[in-house]
Amino acid sequence: MVTPGGGRKRSPRFRHAAPLPGSLGMLRALCGGGGRFFRPGLSLVPLCRPPCRGPPQRPAPAVPPAVGRWLLACSGAVAGAVVLGGVTRLTESGLSMVDWHLVKEMKPPRTQQEWEAEFQKYQQFPEFKILNHDMTLTEFKFIWYMEYSHRMWGRVVGLAYILPAAYFWRKGWLSRPMKGRVLALCGLVCFQGLLGWYMVKSGLEEKPDSYDIPRVSQYRLAAHLGSALVLYSASLWTGLSLLLPRHQLHETRQLLQLRHFAHGTTALIFLTALSGAFVAGLDAGLVYNSFPKMGERWIPDDLFAFSPTLRNIFENPTTVQFDHRILGVASVTAVTALYLFSRRISLPHRTRMAVTSLLAVAWVQVCLGISTLLLYVPTPLAATHQSGSLALLSAALWLMSELRRVPK
């Protein structure tokens, strides 16, 4: 079709979207039309692109498996420190080193003169004066090396946390949440070392009004063990979370109940292990070496001999042993009930293995505890019982890791 001006008039159906004046043209420019057509009567919303909101956010980088393996290795090192500390306590070696230096004491005595000087320092404190006044230098070397090994192992644990953490941080392998966890773990391991010396110091103090065997404060011993258990549990849990893939479990009511049951059982196991520190601190395993009764009675007469009554829970050896018995029986009962309840739910093979392992370790642990009591706390058996508490706690944490919820 020719126009009066000599040009050819285009048909309306072939008309392209020319630059539009006013607000409509600005709207198309903001939407980034990209060569699309605007047609009368059609909504503009489908033709518009979403407004620019900056560069798309990248997902958080995955933490390499090496970090998880490192944390599992650290939890194993902490377990070794707990076991070695228990043996040190059972052999009454913890008060043989009477001072604390971070670097200076790393070198043990070598000459006869150095050993005699170290022995003379020990002779100035209550444990030698009251308990070991006839100890020879050879016997002193044994308990000194026991405490020295425990302290040096503690330094190895500290290096095992701090040096790899600095390396992974520098390599950029730690996500932001993981950096917070790693900082907390490194801070806790340093606090653990200071708390250990604070505990030993309580056993070196002179107590003129006391004729009891010199020992560390059971409160400080429980705090030292408790912080070690927290460090161990946090390291193991984080390592398992990084290495074990989560199961796509169907969120049923029974599974939710099982998960809550597992959390409560784990807390009970932790409390039972912590109560063992009061048993060790007061030598409460040496009273009432019978089971299931305590002597001839189910409830001993001196259960509340101290005044006020609250002191008995933490300072009366009879009450401390009674509480540990109750907690131990409650723990194995809860684990057994947890196992029976889990049989009613369809669980993956690995989760089923965790439940079965928890049941087996619980019954082995209670048998070890009863045997230790009946045989008057022999050192090898008592050390095995203390190690069993870590194995039981580990199995409970493994089960919790298996049952953890998949994030949406």
Give a count of the beta strands, DSSP E runs of length 2 or more: 0
Supply the helix-strand structural class. Answer: mainly alpha
* Biggest beta sheet attributes: none
Instruction: Report the β-strand fraction as a percent range.
Output: under 5%
Mean pLDDT figure: 86
In whole angstroms, the N-to-C terminal distance is: 63 Å
**Which spans have pLDDT < 50 for at least 5 consecutive residues?**
1-52, 54-60
The percentage helix is 55-70%
SSE pattern, N- to C-terminal: HHHHHHHHHHHH
- The total count of helices amounts to 12
> What general form does the structure show?
flat
Give the radius of gyration. 33 Å
Write structural notes for this entry.
The chain is flat and about 65 Å long. It is 62% helix and 0% strand. The longest helix has 35 residues, at 137-171. By secondary structure, the chain is an all-alpha fold. Mean pLDDT is 86; it is low at 1-52 and 54-60. The chain has helices spanning 22-31, 65-90, 112-122, 126-131, 137-171, 176-203, 218-243, 253-281, 310-315, 317-342, 349-374, 379-402. It is built from 12 helices and no strands.
Brief synopsis:
With 408 residues, this protein is mainly alpha-helical.
Topology:
Layout (H helix, E strand, L loop, with lengths): L21 H10 L33 H26 L21 H11 L3 H6 L5 H35 L4 H28 L14 H26 L9 H29 L28 H6 L1 H26 L6 H26 L4 H24 L6
Helix pairs in contact: 2-5, 2-7, 2-12, 5-6, 6-7, 7-8, 7-12, 8-10, 8-12, 10-11, 11-12
